[in-house]
Amino acid sequence: MFNRRDFLKSSSLVALGSSVPLFLSRTAALAAEAGKPGAKDTILVVVQLTGGNDGLNTVIPFKDPEYAKLRPTLKIPTPQIKKINDDIGLHPSLDGVASLLEDQALCVVQGVGYPNPNQSHFRSMDIWQAASMAEELNEGWIGRALKQVPAAGAFHMAGSNESAPLALTGAPARVPSIASIEDFQLHFAAASGADKKQQRAVIEGAAKSDTSKPGLLDFVQRTASNTYASSQRLQELGKNYQPKSPYPQTPLANRLKLAAQLIDAGLGARIFYVSIDGFDTHANQLSAHANLLSQVSGAMTAFYKDLAARGHKDRILMLTFSEFGRRPYENGSKGTDHGAAAPMLLVGGKVKAGVVGKHPSLTDHQQGNLKFSIDFREVYAAILDGWLGVNSKDVLGAAYKAQPIFKA
Amino acid sequence: MNATIDPRWAWLPYKPSPDAPWDLRKVGHLFRRATFGADYQDLQIALEVGPEKTIDRLLEGDAGGQQKLDAEMKPLADSIARGNNGAQARAWWLYRMLYSPQPLREKLTLFWHNHFATSNAKVNNAGFMLGQYALMRRHALGNFRELLQEMSQDPAMLVWLDTTQSKKGKPNENYARELMELFSLGRDHHYTEKDIREAARAFTGWEIKDGHAFFNAKEHDETDKTVIGKKGNFAGADIVNICLAQKNTPYFIAGKLFRFLISETVSVTPELLEPVAEQFRKDYDFGGLVQTMLRSNLFFSPEAYRTRIKPPVDFALGIVRALEGRIGTIALAQALEDLGQNVFFPPSVKGWDGGQTWLNGQTLLFRQNLALALTSTEDGRFGRRTDPAALVKKYGKTNDGEVVDFFLKLFLQGDVSTDTRSRLVQYMDESRRVSMPVFWAEEDVTNHRTRAVCHLILTLPEFQLD
After folding, report:
1. Of the partner residues A118, A188, A282, the one whose CB lies closest to the CB of residue B162
2. What ipTM does the predicted assembly reach?
3. How far is CA B62 from each of CA B69, B103, B215, rounded to the nearest angstrom?
4. CA separation for the pair A87, A81 (Å, rounded)
5. Are the beta carbons of A333 and B170 separated by less than 8 Å?
6. Percent of chain B beyond pLDDT 90?
7. Quick one: closest CA in A to B161, which residue?
8. Which 3-state string (H, E, C) describes chain A?
9. Using 50, 70 and 90 to split pLDDT, how confident is the model at A351?
10. In angstroms, how far is CA B49 from the centroid of its own chain?
11. Which of A222, B236, B357, B420 lies 20 to 30 Å from B210 when distance is taken between CA atoms?
12. Does the beta carbon of A28 lie under 8 angstroms from any beta carbon of chain B?
């Protein structure tokens, strides 16, 4: 009640364990261990589509005559659709991602959702990020996973005006948010090198928590000392990263390029979280949605190609998700209202190429919304157990059947 | 944590006592929460006149001074609207936050902006955004019922949540949902998906004509709607009244104000809020609610003291105000976007989550580097900026200890450990011995050391606490 959820979310941040992420505090020599053959070095990139992505115009059942009836103004003409099989295809803006099918590197998981879907953006997003429907949510599924693999490095690649996601909270050490390597450092106005050294000593000294008392001051000190240590480590990396494949000039692509740079640097970073906002297309959806999907596709495809060219294609798994899909029948504003079940896209060398699950029925609705057939936690379970090597039951609070999203 | 807070005691007016004296710390606390920061003189005057009179003055503000500022800023507002200049709109508002002689009203306008979080990223009409700002400011210390009613017909809001697109037979649910979830009842409080869909029909027919809300009866759904147990041929205004009549609405709003004015760490239970929320329910007198909270025992108690993370706007403006600076707010608006608080462009209709989410590795570094840019001479972005070195001269502080103590009092009311204070004094001492550029005169060296120690104080973890 009242902002209790926010309060609890906050208080979980207060109770941090060690203050510096393990992978950033280790020596470079130790970090390199993660890259050795045989070591668990898989990488997960979560791409959050904020606002409720219209699943029906993302993975389109073009054969179904109901589709055109539900979407008098928003339907995508069949010839433009990037066909995946005889029944479904991707939105034309997803051409890049669709082309990864040739590389056996795209998996479309259909009809993903959860029971009693909540149609509040914020509640449903919390449910997806926490992988829980408890009334109070204060830990994320990735944060909890990191408790089991504390040495796995994680980064939130932050956009401006964007705070750290719930998905990453609860980790043993706070996951750093980073906008760019260049911005991730302290500046000084110092008269000399010695002056700068003294100033830095004062700033870093004040960040040392001298109290075991949890509270806001302790939270700030831990955040600060974590940040200063991470910053020094990241400043040792080169500033110029040369991608093996060009990235589009979009904020999302820039964030994934930075992720690629951090992977290439061999820090042992294995988890990256990015998001792109704008999917709440209540009105005039057609061009806005096409534009957003084009950014998603361009960024993900470039990242895949860059890492594939570096020999990492079997190490990466990218997934997209949104807090919900949208209503199958369009509204009177050439848009769509909040819905329920929707597809997830998975990209990587090890994903099962093609389709998992069935497209939701366009006639059998629940409260006017598409019904889910795959619980999103079944996808998470497959990733936790089969990709991150983490016991999914401990993270999800129950045993979920892992969906067959990987190559046999 | 607040098992020990007695709700009756909490909301009684604070009276200074030997146990809870009116001191510099309480003055600083009041100014941090109720304004965008105090300068040295503000602190001294408030210390002298006492809490009651200081809060009276904050509630009243200086109407004459405000009129003058409004008149000065009117041509710029008109030009922002004409040119649809969203970036300049941000700077325009930040300038008012910095220099308004009615800072409490200005601050509560920001509270309402976070509540009715509307972004020009979608509205794309700076004139509408300034119009919504004026609406929120007019009712910032007024009546919530009137504000919520007028907000439902505010052009920026009509665009932001698609009411203008909502037609008879084809309603758009966006506004009806957020009205219940975010603007009045709070999520999942006694309304259902069906209530949202029915209420959406009541908001059909609103359009914008010549920049004003216009009701087109032909597009309005005239059939009966059933919303939260009431049935009738409702219009939008009826739905707003139904929302205002729900049990949780005064608690939801009072709870949000509690987090804004009093504490982010005290658990806001219904029992604690009950006395103020039930009073608020009677006629939705929001100004009265603000006044009760600001004057309360709880507001001035250790439970409230430094139990918020400073929002970026408070962080930056607090520095400028304390240093008595004049700075370019266009560059400041840009910097605040990096810090995570881009006014007129909130990240979603839920506004900024605030609290500890303000601070992550990247935003902390942006804060520290902004503090440097505002206090050093090396960064030209902010124009004339502030000058800590001139300020200490103005107040006659010369030796190292005096300078450190002056800034610690000004920014932190002395709330740092003795260790931290000695490290700062030690820095000043050591900085005498490091080599300085040969072309610097002795005054340059002194000024550099003063600015540097001022910046170091602004990077202290304690300074992030509100």
Report:
1. A282
2. 0.94
3. 11, 9, 38
4. 11
5. yes
6. 91
7. A282
8. CCCHHHHHHHHHHHCCCCCCCHHHHCCHHHHHHHHCCCCCCCEEEEEEEECCCCHHHCEECCCCHHHHHHCCCCCCCHHHCEECCCCCEECHHHHHHHHHHHHCCEEEEEEEECCCCCCCHHHHHHHHHHCCCCCCCCCCHHHHHHHHCCCCEEEEECCCCCCCCHHHCCCCCCCCEECCCCCCCCCCCCCCHHHHHHHHHHHHHHHCCCCCCCCHHHHHHHHHHHHHHHHHHHHCCCCCCCCCCCCCCCHHHHHHHHHHHHHHCCCCEEEEEEEEECCCCCCCHHHHHHHHHHHHHHHHHHHHHHHHHCCCCCCEEEEEEECCCECCCCCCCCCCCECCCEEEEEECCCECCEEECCCCCCCCCECCECCCCEEHHHHHHHHHHHHHCCCHHHHHCCCCCCCCCECC
9. very high
10. 25
11. B236
12. no
**Residue tagged 């906002």 (tokens):** A277
Please write the tens of the pLDDT for every residue from B147-170. 999 999 999 999 999 999 999 999
List C-alpha distances in Å: B463 to A396, B64, B313: 38, 33, 13
Q: Residue A217 is nearest to which of B264, B372, B461, comparing CB atoms?
A: B461
**With a CB-CB cutoff of 8 Å, which residues 389-428 of chain B face chain A?**
417, 419-420, 423-424, 427
Q: Is residue B455 very low, low, confident or very high in pLDDT (cuts 50, 70, 90)?
A: very high
Rounded to 10 deg, the angle between the B361-375 and B312-322 helix axes is: 20
Is the overall model pTM greater than 0.80, yes or no? yes
Q: Amino acid identity of B228?
A: I
Whether A217 contacts chain B with CB within 8 A: yes
- At A91, the pLDDT band (50, 70, 90 cuts) reads very high
Decide if A136 touches B, using CB distance below 8 A.
no
DSSP B219: G
**Cβ–Cβ under 8 Å, residues B147 and B136:** yes
Asked if residue B335 lies in contact with residue B370, where contact means CB atoms within 8 angstroms, the answer is: yes
Rg (CA), chain A: 22
Inter-CA distances, A311 with A104, A268, A304, A307, A349, Å: 15, 16, 10, 6, 10
Q: Answer whether A216 sits within 8 Å of B465, measured CB to CB.
A: yes
Closest partner residue to B436 (CB to CB) among A6, A192, A221 is: A192
Of B21, B40, B33, the closest CA to residue B294 belongs to B33
Residue B57 forms contact with A (CB below 8 Å): no
